[in-house]
From TrEMBL:
GO terms for molecular function: peptide chain release factor N(5)-glutamine methyltransferase activity. This is Release factor glutamine methyltransferase. S-adenosyl-L-methionine binds at residues 112-116, 135, 164, 178. Belongs to the protein N5-glutamine methyltransferase family. PrmC subfamily.
């Protein structure tokens, strides 16, 4: 299928950015085709490129995320490995990373690390710092370990299976998390790329969307060093509720930060 036909095909399937996605998928297929012995140009791709492009288009037409087709996603300053076992990293989460890097810390804990994009971005940006990332999914932790090696921070990143703080000991200068915050009754409103292709356990708590924050706030002060910070990503309508949970847990200097679109995206608080 040529590029023009591909764009029309994706548009017919309701893909939000058919032209952009078709071009990205063609570039990916073309790079793979370069490995074949048959010569090619962008106007006359070889058989391998055409085959891979058709496979990619089929997946995207079924609303599979582009990142899962390509196997990677750019986030902050790096490319990360992405599989169906982890969330597709989003630019909104960079708000959390930016807030964390504005603070002084040397030891960080990332609860529900998934692919590791938050923890590993922080460690890559702060040489000498060390961190721990936890998740209940062994498959997600396997992806995070691959990403740690890819970024060269594997010696400073401990990745372990834990349900929030259950397997955690010691205190940290910083705790971060992008937990499942979509309420169960909101799952049906999500785009197919998210609802049908990302791990449900990383999206929703199967309740009101706040249970993860309750668990995190309940254990935060016991695992934060004096003056340490807790920073979490939130749904854009959850700012007031999560900020109240922070205050009720005894955290101080609680604030809500917006994302690039001006929506509430991150809640911060301090111990002591």
């Amino acid at each position: 299928m040529n590029l023009s036909a591909a764009i029309k095909h994706l548009a017919a399937q309701g893909v939000p950015d058919p032209a952009g996605d078709a071009r990205r998928l063609f570039d990916w297929a073309y790079a793979i085709g370069q490995q074949a012995p048959e010569p090619q140009t962008r106007d006359t791709p070889n058989d391998l490129t055409r085959e891979m492009f058709d496979i990619a288009l089929s997946g995207r037409a079924a609303r599979k995320p582009v990142s899962q087709i390509l196997g990677r996603r750019a986030f902050w300053k790096h490319d990360f490995i992405v599989t169906p076992d982890v969330l597709d990293p989003r630019p909104d989460t960079e708000t959390l990373v930016e807030a964390a890097l504005a603070l002084p810390w040397r030891r960080v804990l990332d609860l529900g690390t998934g692919s590791g994009v938050i923890l590993l971005s922080l460690l890559a940006a702060r040489p000498g710092a060390a961190g721990t990332g936890t998740d209940v999914s062994d498959a997600a932790l396997a992806v995070a370990r691959r990403n740690a090696v890819q970024l060269g921070v594997q010696d400073r990143a401990t990745l372990l299976r834990s349900d929030w703080f259950v397997a955690i000991t010691g205190r940290f200068d910083l705790i971060v998390s992008n937990p499942p915050y979509i309420a169960a009754d909101e799952m049906g409103t999500l785009m197919p790329e998210v609802r049908d292709h990302e791990p449900r356990i990383a999206l929703t708590d199967e309740g009101d969307g706040l249970s993860a924050y309750r668990a995190i706030c309940a254990g935060a002060l016991a695992h934060l060093a004096p003056g340490g910070a807790l920073i979490v990503e939130i749904g854009h309508r959850q700012g007031a509720a999560v900020a109240a949970l922070f205050r009720d847990a005894g955290l101080s200097d609680v604030c809500i930060l917006p994302d690039l679109d001006g929506r509430d995206r991150v809640v911060c608080g301090r111990a002591g």
